[in-house]
Write a structure and sequence with these properties.
heterodimer, A: 456 residues, alpha/beta, Aspartate Aminotransferase, domain 1, seven-stranded mixed β-sheet, four-stranded mixed β-sheet, 14 helices, 38% helix, globular, B: 462 residues, Aspartate Aminotransferase, domain 2, 2 domains, 13 helices, 37% helix, disordered N terminus
Chain lengths: 456, 462
């Protein structure tokens, strides 16, 4: 049962004391925000006034098993009653068990696990290991990192300059960026800057661009390539089958470490346990977060192949994170993974994902502002355009983000758009009926936004 | 009350083998651990004690990484986590939750001066990255976007991520090249090993503070975004627990004000009672523009950190065009906020800040009397329960022991024999949970006394 809450007092305290991410407290003061959430079960959350919402965004596509999984709460509790941390230089039982579990789940010889507390840290760790690895091989000159435009790999200084999502926000607030960041085209056929005529041609040209970048910079300066198997920020474009095998081959040819960022795509999000499994290759390192623990607590990990890790057995890197190897987060993650496997949610993600994507694709028949619907499993991107033929976007002045977000709110959907992309990524425990609710809610929202645009 | 958890039996050997095969532990080498029968794997904890998988009791002298402030086994925090997880385990996008808001308000109340608005994250590195990003963006909002450099102190530690791993420090970081642009290093106000010279703690403090101004003048104030320092250097091999003289922080505050440099105090270790006051900087009576915290904020029961700013800084980000563009999935997480609230409640109810001051004073007395008996103890220092003995081969030159003598390994073995968990590294840091008693101090110091004596005898120093 939801207790009564003094919503207004909490709201006022939030506006005064809380620095919410990516939100303007002066605007929220006027709109009656922020909404204060107090309870959750499955895909639904309830606010302090008793209103229930459907979280179609799944908490930044992270709450894979949905809200209210009491088993995870009990597992965390039990561990908290045993040992809550680890003295310097020691380890604990659940951390060891989780490392072994992840080594077993991940492909190939990804066998050694460096835990962290968030995706940014996991990618920072991957990059630090990569550079130190090359140094141990006598190739200290390799420090540059190749990433794809429109990708996102985190917000701390070593990873902030990876990806380059210029349509979302400018990084100029945080200059200077870390040195050695190389950006290549994203394999997004819908908006292929290299002009590929087919998805395969886009994939091949974009993979080729990686090799071109390596040749231009010199392989002896390039440490790693990093990419999400399917990237969420550009609206989940699924690269054609040629892309990842070519990337694997290019990285091998030039001695470049291949890092797959599975923070969003991991643990069933795309209908397979890891997103890269759709493409049949194995990376040298994999980073993970979010679905690893369905965000019940902060946890991430960097899983490293034996070929790389073996260089560090007697010569570790000076890289200490307080929460690296935390017994409570490990215990919660073990329970999360147990439920994920036991209850068949990876398959559910595939099945419901297909259904939801088909339903959203059908909306294109009625809504001309939808330019494209794409994705895999329950990672779906809906792209909004002003003109379907030219794929032109709405100008910022049209206020599409505000219009869409207000409409979603009216429909009781937790869903936010930047005006160009709507990311639909509900908990992967979602049912078919709940998918129907999302489709109907998005349908009604688009109708309202189109009516609003027409009446302007 | 505490429930008795039934102790499981473990197959320690196979756990250890699994750890050596799959677990990338920080700062340990798995090849070496394999030879030494490590790592030690722990299964339970209570107060200062932890219990390994074979049932042996150990005393954790450093409270994890100086973070388990309330001690192990406080089930109030376990209760808070379970209750919040069952109610709501995450904050949906664009919304907030009650524990996050209540914690924000609580932090505004307990931090010094007008520190008011906090950005909650999951670890000290993130908190410091956030602080630096806020400082840079703040200057840009004020039309001073040429300010990007950050001054830290040699020997300090502020984190392991892209920018923070280049703040402070001594020794080589060449594993992580290229260096981050715009990193400037001022003198550490270490009264025992001063970078900028000086005879008395006051003179050393003044010189170290002046080195900050010198850097600003040399680089041009219009290029300097921020200064960052721990209230006092907490856990590094060279400068740990060196407490600057009273002049230092007021001077640094004044210099930052004069040149428009954002002053960030890193309370990741020194916060939440560790030094005998709620925050370390309170010993100097100044208020920073931004303060970062982690560890003791939640006694590391779960990962948690925060960055708190004054209205002067935060107000620059009000308005739709001024939003600070940073998202962390686990930023503003209701479960860890609920845990932090329960933790702060324990610190206040059990008067752990006062206990840290009182028992800390007793600890320092015991450290001094042990130190006087042993020539290898060059210096005893600290505040509250953030204390260290600096180990030297010669008290006049203050030179450390050559690696080939193996002093640290000898000590580590002898501490292990006594079931004390301390990792010597040029110095011995004592930073137990704040609930420590005088009896426990005696037990630790007896062990330290014996170990120092045995090692001195072995290396012919006594």
């Amino acid at each position: 049962m939801v207790a009564t809450h003094d919503t207004e007092a909490i709201r006022q305290a939030s506006l005064k004391y809380q620095w919410m991410h990516n939100a303007d407290w002066t605007e929220m003061a006027e709109t009656g925000e922020p909404i204060v959430m107090v309870a959750g079960k499955g895909v639904r959350v309830t606010d302090s006034t008793g209103k229930t919402w459907l979280d179609a965004h799944g908490g930044y596509t992270s709450v894979h098993l949905g809200y209210g999984q009491d088993e995870i709460a009990e597992a965390a509790y039990e561990q908290l009653c045993k040992i809550t941390f680890f003295p310097s230089g020691t380890t604990t039982v659940p951390v060891v068990e989780l490392a072994e579990k992840l080594a077993g789940m991940t492909p190939g010889n990804l066998n050694r696990v460096f835990p962290g507390a968030g995706g940014s840290e996991a990618n920072e760790t991957a990059i630090k290991i990569t550079r130190a690895y090359h140094k141990r091989r006598g190739e200290a000159g390799r420090y540059k990192i190749i990433s794809r435009k429109f990708s996102y790999h985190g917000t701390t200084a070593g990873v902030l300059g990876l990806g380059n999502n210029a349509t979302d926000f400018s990084l100029s607030d945080f200059e200077p960026m870390a040195p050695g960041m190389i950006h290549v085209p994203h394999p997004n056929h819908y908006r292929d800057e290299l002009g590929g005529a087919s998805p395969s041609e886009t994939a091949i040209k974009c993979a080729q661009a990686v090799e071109d970048a390596i040749l231009m910079h010199g392989a002896d300066t390039v440490a790693a390539f990093i990419g999400e198997p399917i990237a969420q920020p550009p609206g989940a474009p699924v690269p054609a089958p040629e892309y990842w095998p070519m990337i694997r081959e290019i990285c091998d040819r030039y001695g470049v470490v291949l890092i797959c960022d599975e923070i969003i795509t991991g643990f069933g999000r795309t209908g397979k346990m890891f997103g890269i499994e759709h493409f049949g290759i194995e990376p040298d390192m994999m980073t993970m977060g979010k679905g690893l623990i369905s965000s019940y607590l902060p946890l991430a990990a960097t899983v490293v192949s034996d070929d790389i890790a073996d260089y560090f057995g007697s010569d570790n890197i000076a890289h200490a994170i307080t929460a690296s190897g935390h017994p409570v987060t490990a215990a919660a993650a073990l329970k999360n993974l147990e439920i994920l496997e036991r209850d068949g949610y990876v398959e559910n993600s595939r099945v419901q994902g297909e259904y939801l994507k088909a339903g959203l694709t059908e909306l294109m028949d009625r809504h001309t502002i939808v330019g494209d619907v794409r994705g895999l499993g329950l990672l779906i991107g809906v792209e909004i355009v002003a003109d379907r033929d030219t794929k032109e976007r709405f100008p910022k002045s049209a206020g599409l983000a505000a219009r869409l977000n207000a409409a979603f709110r009216k429909q009781g959907l937790i869903l936010q758009s930047d005006g160009n992309i709507i990311t639909v990524g509900p908990p992967i425990c979602i049912t078919r009926d709940e998918c129907d609710e999302i489709i109907a809610g998005v349908d009604a929202s688009l109708t309202e936004v189109e009516a609003g645009l027409a009446s302007d | 009350m505490v429930e008795t958890i039934e102790r499981k039996t473990f197959d320690t050997d196979s756990l250890r083998k699994s750890s050596l095969r799959h677990n990338w532990m920080h700062m340990r080498n798995w090849n070496e651990m394999a030879e030494e029968g490590e790592p030690l794997i722990l299964a339970d904890g209570k107060g200062l004690n932890v219990y390994d998988t074979d049932g042996n009791e150990w005393l954790d002298v450093n409270g994890g990484y100086l973070c388990v402030n309330v001690g192990y086994g406080r089930t109030e925090i376990a209760d808070a986590v379970r209750a919040q997880m069952k109610a709501l385990s995450f904050t949906p996008r664009g919304t907030t939750t009650e524990p996050v808001v209540r914690l924000s308000q609580k932090l505004a109340e307990i931090t010094p001066g007008d520190l008011e608005r906090s950005w909650q994250s999951t670890g000290g590195s993130e908190a410091n990255e956030t602080a630096i990003k806020i400082a840079k963006a703040y200057h840009k909002r004020n039309g001073e976007k040429s300010r990007y450099k950050v001054i830290s102190r040699m020997g300090s530690y502020h984190g392991a991520t892209g920018l923070t791993s280049w703040l402070g420090g001594r020794g080589s970081r060449s594993d992580f090249e290229p260096a981050f642009p715009g990193m400037l290093y001022a003198a550490q106000p270490n009264p025992y090993r001063p970078d900028a010279g000086g005879e008395t703690p006051s003179e050393i403090a003044v010189r170290a503070a002046k080195s900050v101004e010198d850097l600003i003048l040399y680089h041009g104030a219009d290029t300097v975004a921020a200064f960052i320092g721990e209230a006092f250097c907490a856990d590094t091999p060279y400068d740990a627990c060196s407490v600057p003289g009273p002049e230092y922080w007021p001077m640094v505050r004044e210099i930052c004000d004069r040149y428009g440099v954002v002053m960030i105090v890193d309370e990741v270790i020194t916060g939440f009672g560790r030094t005998g006051k709620m925050f370390g900087i309170e010993h100097w009576g100044v208020t920073p523009d931004i303060m970062t915290m982690a560890k003791g904020l939640v006694s590391a029961y779960v990962p948690m950190a925060a960055t708190i700013a004054t209205p002067k800084i935060a107000d620059a980000f009000a308005g739709p065009d001024n939003v600070f563009a940073q998202t962390l999935t686990f930023g503003g997480h209701p479960v860890i906020a609920a845990a932090a609230l329960a933790n702060i409640d324990i610190i206040e109810k059990d008067k752990l800040v006062q206990n840290a001051a009182d028992v800390g004073e007793y600890l320092m007395d015991q450290m001094r009397s042990v130190g006087e008996k042993h020539p290898m103890v060059g210096n005893v220092r600290g505040l509250g329960l953030m204390t260290a003995m600096d180990l030297v081969s010669d008290p006049v030159t203050k030179v450390r022991f050559p690696a080939e003598l193996g002093v640290e390994n000898r000590m580590a073995e002898k501490f292990a024999e006594r079931r004390l968990i301390i990792r010597p590294r040029g110095l011995l840091v004592f930073s137990p949970p704040l609930c420590i008693t005088r009896d426990e101090v005696d037990r630790i110091m007896q062990g330290v006394d014996e170990v120092l004596g045995e090692v001195e005898a072995e290396i012919g120093m006594s």
